[in-house]
Write a structure and sequence with these properties.
binds pyridoxal-5'-phosphate, about 375 residues, globular, Aspartate Aminotransferase, domain 1, 7-stranded mixed beta sheet, alpha/beta, single chain, Aspartate Aminotransferase, domain 2, 12 strands, 3-stranded antiparallel beta sheet
């Protein structure tokens, strides 16, 4: 049996998404900026997707800037504010558990003379709004805090964090790439000025994403790709019309029932895996965790060996975040929640999708038990 449990890395494109995209490659292929009727057709399709995405996060259509994905959206948010508001201050606040698209961007800005505060998180990965409040200074221009963590599934209380930013009049950005359609993203309620999204995590195509830019911030953001006046002068380049159409379709197909289904499968998988000896759950339990994320440390054995053992049984998982899973340094997220390097090395991330079944989860539970038992039997670390 083949079981794909790496939806946090990417998801299959839904057939209906592909069907919606297809005509925009071969029939409605005009440039959306062209003034002829073909161009208008493409522009209308962009407008429709913009509205669909905006509605899903309680934003206005004019506040959506399409990009090439979550990484570009994060870069545009963080560098855009840093360069756009550098005359007002050079201090940025983020956390130690961000995706590299934010973390590395902040490190780059530090090399250019910006000051960055990396807030600590508790043992479940939560940022304390009081600690955030105390960290804001007169020259703070941006707070960037991930919504749903891609490794351990922690869902931050954006509303409480957004309130702090609002009270102190600082721009608030959140990377909502993993959380969008899985838990509520409401840019108004959550006090967001900027938020990043990506299509391929929600059964849309790769290479498409979006940045929500609150209307009043449009003038403050320095665009990162110079050229024509596309996307409200915030991102030059001919729009990826088929990709954006697919993205809109993917958003429209998301259902609360999918979330409920994934929560049930997640709980069954987590509860069963934690019955194995010497296992630890990384991240919180319950509704403060992404509906599709289970991250478990298996003591005394290597995550890579578990991954390969499961791969041989047709099961696809990840050893950490998709983007860092090829590196040997322990995950910065697991380190931030206090996991020892040896426990981080034995961690596996299972990320569910809406099409996974109970039978698949039963098969995964049995298979993990077999692989872990065999590896521990061979491990020099088990007495
Ligand atoms: C939280 C988070 N942010 C950003 C990204 C990057 O998104 P993209 O692959 O669309 O560049 C990812 C992808 O793994 C992610 O999980």
């Amino acid at each position: 049996m083949d079981v794909y449990l790496d939806h946090g890395a990417s998801t299959p494109v839904d057939r209906r998404v592909l069907d919606a995209m297809r005509p925009y490659f071969t029939e409605y292929y005009a440039n959306a900026s062209s003034l002829h009727s073909g161009g208008a057709e493409a522009a209308n399709a962009l407008a429709e997707s913009r509205k669909t995405l905006a509605d899903s996060i309680n934003a206005k259509a004019e506040e959506i800037v399409f990009t090439s994905g979550g990484s570009e959206s994060d870069n545009l948010a963080v560098k855009g504010v840093a360069y756009g508001l550098r005359d007002s201050g050079r201090h940025i606040i983020t956390t130690g558990i961000e995706h590299p698209a934010v973390l590395e961007t902040c490190r780059g800005l530090e090399r250019e003379g910006f000051n960055v505060t990396y807030l600590p998180v508790d043992e479940e990965g939560f940022t304390d709004p009081n600690v955030l409040s105390e960290s804001i200074k007169d020259d703070t221009i941006l707070v960037s805090i991930i919504h749903g963590n891609n490794e351990i599934g922690t869902i931050q209380d954006l509303r409480a964090l957004g309130e702090v930013c609002g009270d102190q009049d600082v721009v608030f950005h959140s990377d909502a790439v993993q959380s969008h359609t899985k838990t509520e993203v409401d840019v108004v309620k959550q006090g967001l000025g900027l938020a990043s999204f990506s299509a391929h995590k929600i059964h849309g195509p790769k290479g498409v994403g979006a940045l929500y830019v609150r209307e009043d911030l449009k003038g403050s953001l320095r665009r990162q790709i110079d050229g024509g006046g596309h996307e409200y002068h915030l991102r030059a380049g001919t729009e990826n019309v088929p990709g954006v159409v697919g993205y809109g379709k993917a958003v429209s197909l998301a259902r609360k029932s999918h979330v409920k289904h994934m929560v049930r499968l997640r709980n069954k998988l987590a509860d069963s895996l934690l019955e194995l000896p010497d296992t630890m759950l990384n991240g919180p339990r319950g509704d403060r965790r992404l509906c599709n994320n289970v991250n478990v440390s298996f003591k005394h054995i290597e995550g890579e060996s578990i991954l390969l053992g499961l791969d041989a049984k047709g099961i696809s998982v990840s050893t950490g975040s998709a983007c860092s899973s090829k590196s040997l340094t322990p995950s910065h997220v697991l380190a931030a929640i206090g996991r020892r390097p040896e426990d981080s090395h034995g961690s596996i991330r299972f990320t569910l999708g809406r099409d996974n079944t109970w039978e698949e989860i039963d098969y995964v539970i049995v298979s993990v038990g077999e692989v872990v038992e065999r590896l521990r039997w061979m491990s020099p670390f088990v007495g």
